[in-house]
Amino acid sequence: MKSRYDVVVVGAGPAGSVAARCAAAGGLDVLLIEKRQEIGSPVRCAEAVGVESLRPYLALDSRWVNAEVARFAVCNAVGDVVCLPPTEPTLVVERKIFDRELARLAAEAGAEVQAKTTAVGLLHDNGRVSGVRIQRAGQEYEVSARLVVAADGPESQTARWAGLETVPPLNDYYVSVQYLLSGVGEKVKPTECQYHLDVDFAPGGYAWVFPKGSNTANVGLVIEANYADTESAQARLERFVERHFPHASVLSVVVGGIPVTGGIRQMATHGLVVVGDAAHHADPLTGGGIGLGMMGAGLAMEVAVDALRRGDVSAGALRSYEAQWRRRFGRSHQALYKARKLAARIGQESINDLIKQASQLDLENMSLGEVALRLFAKHPLLLVEVGKLIATGFILK
Amino acid sequence: MNTGIKSPEKSIVVRRELCGSCGACVAVCQQNALFLLNAYLYVDAAACTACRRCVRVCPVRALSLVDVDMQQPAEVLL
Ligand SMILES: Cc1cc2nc3c(=O)[nH]c(=O)nc-3n(C[C@H](O)[C@H](O)[C@H](O)COP(=O)(O)OP(=O)(O)OC[C@H]3O[C@@H](n4cnc5c(N)ncnc54)[C@H](O)[C@@H]3O)c2cc1C
Ligand code: SF4
Ligand code: SF4
């Protein structure tokens, strides 16, 4: 490790590794640090990701693809199921291998990667971020950088040290527990991702069952943090597993949180950009953020590499990344955000009923308009709510 | 970082055998009083205002807010 770099990236998740790789490919001197001793592990993810978002960054590889998803099955609390084709080709991946491959590609592009190396503070110079205080192998180092990239995930301290507001309100924060289950049997189809909308288990969120091959599956749930008071996320998952997979074994336990605000207010300041979950890039409806984190990091580095070349890494120059991010994702994120709030508002009975109605329709041979008409006929409340969404200018993608 | 004894009467205690080092609590602490280093969660007792946000969000209930006996050594409070 040297004492000076052009760019120091904090956090080697998908967003950080993509940021480091883009910067290195742009001819810059880059350090990528990761506090865990093994990049990609422990996993904090259900591991479903759309192929389109990966395409610019890496070629598909059977080493980290566990399943190709042919359909999404959306289930209500009383046993009805609507099956939908995925909106884009989707995979269930092995993030341990996937994350490490992304970090390896960053190293191959010329970035220096250091695991078990933690950012413990920032250096400041004249009101701008000028480097990172790093702890590694029991020693503390001051490493200066022209640009710091905060890619340190939901707990991002790096952005906070720079004075940016990243703490989500509890009603925009998902808390989550997931088990990797073995012996899941017939209930899991090898190419089907299940989503369970049932407030008894996952109030303000949902439970999922994603196939991982070889009779295993990621089975987990997210709840809106406000609902964790009455029963913890883990206790809820225990009940869900008892109900659906009473005989399965637990191969691993995953815990975590996901900010679902739809994006922090300010994603850059003098000498620093924030990307990925640290910037709340994840989908504010599903909490999915692998692909969005990578795309956000890609956008940020296009702007930042150019800013570094011009020698202007002021907040003004870097915030054009934020403007671009909002142009690309602002509207769809707001629509997804509102859809989450809408789902919470209409209540379980309406959800049960909607899924039941939809399960009886021949979705493959109907236009979206026909489907909407049939569902709205029975649910005028929903029509009003969707009307409001459209009236405010947001239409679901 | 201050990891010593907190002067007010409440403090956050981590049950290490439950904690999965996920950082969900760190993300919601408005005082930035929590920090994960080498998979261990540290509490900056002086910064903590005992708001309980971290206690509420922990997916595995590893955190609790306890009355502090001022005589307790710092390690017990970490
Ligand atoms: C249970 C669960 C299920 C999920 N399921 C899905 C899913 O199916 N599909 C999907 O797309 N998304 C899913 N997500 C969200 C997804 O995991 C994140 O959006 C994604 O990992 C974000 O990538 P990132 O690179 O921004 O952050 P992360 O992957 O969180 O990476 C941040 C990295 O920074 C490191 N770090 C933090 N602080 C420091 C420091 N001080 N110094 C050095 N390193 C540091 C961390 O150790 C971590 O490795 C899920 C999340 C959870 C919790
Ligand atoms: S939220 Fe709970 S499990 Fe996660 S780091 Fe905090 S104390 Fe540990
Ligand atoms: S009680 Fe509040 S201030 Fe104290 S550590 Fe928890 S979240 Fe932070």
Summary keywords:
heterodimer; A: alpha/beta; 8-stranded mixed β-sheet; 9 helices; 18 strands; globular; B: 78 residues; two-stranded antiparallel ribbon; 3 helices; 4 strands; 18% helix; 23% strand; binds flavin-adenine dinucleotide
Q: Can you describe what's shown?
A:
- The complex is a heterodimer of chains A (397) and B (78).
- Chain A is α/β, with parallel strands linked by helices and 397 residues long.
- In chain A, 34% of the residues lie in helices and 28% in strands.
- Chain A contains nine helices and 18 strands.
- In chain A, strand 1 (4-10), helix 1 (14-25) and strand 2 (30-33) form a beta-alpha-beta unit.
- In chain A, 47% of the residues are buried.
- Residues 393-397 of chain A have low confidence and may be disordered.
- Chain B is an alpha+beta fold.
- Helices cover 18% and strands 23% of the residues of chain B.
- Chain B has helices at 24-28, 53-57, 74-77, and strands at residues 10-14, 34-37, 40-43, 63-67.
- A two-stranded antiparallel ribbon of chain B has the order 1-4. In chain B, strands 2-3 form a two-stranded antiparallel sheet.
- In chain B, a hairpin with a 2-residue loop joins strand 2 and strand 3.
- The N and C termini of chain B lie close together (12 Å).
- At the A-B interface, strand 12 and strand 16 of A face helix 1, strand 2 and helix 2 of B.
- One iron/sulfur cluster binds at residues 12, 29, 31, 33-34, 43, 48-54 of chain B.
Oligomeric description of these chains:
heterodimer
Number of helices of chain B: 3
Order of helices and strands of chain B: EHEEHEH
| Main beta sheet of chain A | 8 strands, mixed
Largest interface, with Cβ-Cβ < 8 Å? Answer: A-B, 35 and 23 residues
Output the strand order for the largest sheet of chain B: 1-4
Shape of chain B: globular
Distance between the termini of chain B: 12 Å
**Percentage of residues assigned to helices of chain B:** 10-25%
Mean pLDDT of chain B: 82
- Percent range of helical residues of chain A: 25-40%
Spans where pLDDT lies below 50 across 5 or more residues of chain B: 1-7, 73-78
Instruction: Estimate what percentage of residues of chain A fall within beta strands.
Output: 25-35%
Bound ions, cofactors and other small molecules, one mention each: flavin-adenine dinucleotide, iron/sulfur cluster
Q: What structural category characterises the helix and strand content of chain B?
A: alpha+beta
Beta-strand percentage of chain B?
A: 15-25%
Q: How does the helix and strand content of chain A classify structurally?
A: alpha/beta
Alpha carbon gap, first and last residue of chain A = 45 Å
